[in-house]
Amino acid sequence: MKNQNINTNQDYKYGFTTDIESIKAPKGLSEKSIKFISKMKKEPEWMLKWRLKAFERLKNLKEPDWQKPKYPKIDYQDLYYYSAPKSASEKPKSLDEVDPKLLETYKKLGIPLQEQKRLSGVAVDAVFDSVSVATTYKEELTKKGIIFCSISEAIQKHPELVKKYLGSVIPITDHYFATLNSAVFTDGSFVYIPPNVKCPMELSTYFRINASDTGQFERTLIIADKGSYVSYLEGCTAPMRDENQLHAANVELVALDDAEIKYSTVQNWYPGDKDGKGGIYNFVTKRGACRGKNSKISWTQVETGSAITWKYPSCILQGDNSVGEFYSIAITNNHQKADTGTKMIHLGKNTRSKIISKGISAGQADNTYRGLVDISRKASNSRNYTQCDSLLMGNKCGAHTVPYIKNKNFSSTVEHEATTSKINEEQLYYCNQRGLNQEEAVSLIVNGFCKEVLQQLPMEFAVEAQKLVGISLEGSVG
Amino acid sequence: MNENFKISPSEINNIKVLNQKDKNFRLENLKLFNQQGFPTRNHEDWKFSDINQIFSKNFKNLVSFKNKIKLKSVNFIKQFDHNHILMVNGKLENSEFKFEDKNKIKIKSYNDSNFSLNNEENSLINLNNALSNNGLFLEVADNYSFEKAIIIYNVFTDDLKDNLLNNKNKIILGKNSELHIVEYNINQSKNKFIYNTTENVILNENASLKTINLQANQNEGFFYKFSKGKMKSNSNYSSFIFSSGPKFNKIDAEFDLEGEKCDCNIKSALFINKDKHQEIKTKINHLVPNCKSYQKIKSVVDAEGKGVYQGKIYVKDIAQKTNAYQLSKALLLSENSEFNSKPELEIYADDVKCSHGSTSGSVDENSIHYLMTRGLSKKQAVQLLVNGFLNEIIGDIKSNSVRKFIENKIEVQIHGY
Q1: What is the pTM of this model?
Q2: Chain B residues within 8 A of A418 when measuring between CB atoms
């Protein structure tokens, strides 16, 4: 990939691999590096076999190219597929060494100092890259029988659950990036909620990318057993310092009878600079299966970062009366590109889905909503409602809507509506008149535009996300 | 026929070519077609109608049409006065303009002399470029408004069987001219055949063209029509599509709005019955500011029918003050009917009003209940509601006599239900 961090490579050359804290897999995608990852994680034999099977299949797969944002070809042999945390010597010593612009943003978001250090990668406490941060509140969760741990730990300690569900929603025979992830995933979260348990708190893990040139391949698996409930948060509102990197995570959700999973994401990775140099490629596969009757999966996402966002959190509504929801805000500024949306696949009877998507495009950005609503022959009395609105700021950006709507059942109803417009001049004028400057006014109006989605976020997240919406659009007006 | 359906270059020897350039153009296109074959589901534009599969299921031995034409008598429309053009199997047979100033109208059999490839992705167009040998060329002079509508009788004779027909039409309207065309397809063949046509429409400044597309009867034909339009400033295009009836029908319209203040309208009311397959695909390219486009597609799908709408609005960065609208509504009447849609927006200008909507579902139970409490049977109630649903489009036709004629046609279709 472009913009290699030369320093890191040099460090590697001078033998930093001997340092226990920065072990890297052999460079490139090969059976050798997959075996290395599996060995480092002390995985059982079946897991390695699973990975190799995925790798075998990957060899015959082609990278998809139908997406709207194009990107330079990724050299998969030039990436490291495993790296433990960086050694302290490579990180900034204190906040003084951190990009002042980044600090300014932290300040605006109101992030505590200690948190700022952690986010900007200052070497103070344990900052991990591919290895999960030790998860908190463990005790309280254990009491309820909830399993919340890293996926590597789950492979060791709960192989029966992992074997049963891993790859059951995103099989290893899926598309290119998902299969790549199956072969080389390093870590991620594992959640299991036992029957009839309501998870007492919001579970969250910060997803982090800190080592340069390390494609991040996280794997998350959440299982909500009968009658249970869980809300899971991914990401954080603060921007993270980074180089141009590939991020191809897989997230699998399984909801059994009467279970509910709420999955919220706030993604604010490095979007590249004003000229579109650098930035993260966020090619994530997220899919949830409503396996049981009356189950529900709800995706909420606020996507403001990354150079290219390319993801479609989907719901497979298998169980009768199951519900799928998708709430999304995608903000693109400067040279950012987003191609995002959802798939709602109705298989069971009386299944319901709702899609609310808000796309905001400024600068020279391109924002695409691409979605599928598929009502199969047997999904009687199903319903879908889709609304996707786009807001354009300036005449150099683009907003696109590409919905695919299939209805094969005559008792089911599908509704889709979409609008594209710019910020209403009168609203801006009104705000200006009341003493708000242009930027404040835009932020206020855009927040209003996004309200339906922001409301879905958990409380703490929502407050930060609102500020984030404003910050992401800075410099796009006037 | 299978996936390796190929056409031998010797076919081109049977066509009267203009010159060597023409021949080379045809050979080149044939090569492109033979490389690709008929489009499959893998082509984005054919996602919902895998034409390769449909053709291979229905045609075992597809041949170009070479037989002599045996034309049965044609029932001309008597309900209203009109000029007429008679096309038989895609070939211009005769025309009559008894209400018009004949000096203002140029009509002849069309031979394309523009040998440039512009849509290489679509192998059906390649096929058409390679093999088309007939067509209609119609040009209207500047400042001329037609007194009466033209009806183009497209007759397909009953000696068509497993044939492949390719034809090309071109319609040019001069400045400030006005024309109203009714395209009326009459199918005398009981057999399967493929009619692949491309149409070129050019509307000069301030010109106005209205077209109505209508089928006389249910039939076994497979129709594909690619229509490419160019609109100059202040021109006005409106198209009504009522083409229910053929076994397969795909209308693929692409319009470039090149001059300011153009107005492009596409409206359709379809009743898709039995195992019929209808697709409307549109692409409206807003290339300059201050244009308007409006699309309203209404479909009723019954039995094993399948309806598809793929619409795209493209707005270029300079095309500010664009007003574009897309609406697709479908009613599904039977458990085996299917409706797919893909209303797409691609927008690069900010000061625009663009929106689309798409719905599909069954007939409102409450409305049926209401009508049944008033003494209608369930079947009658559904028919009444379907009629009302489709009539919204028909109501937009201004001429009373034409509207009545079409109302009757649609009613016959619905009552076959």
Answers
A1: 0.86
A2: 343, 345, 355-357
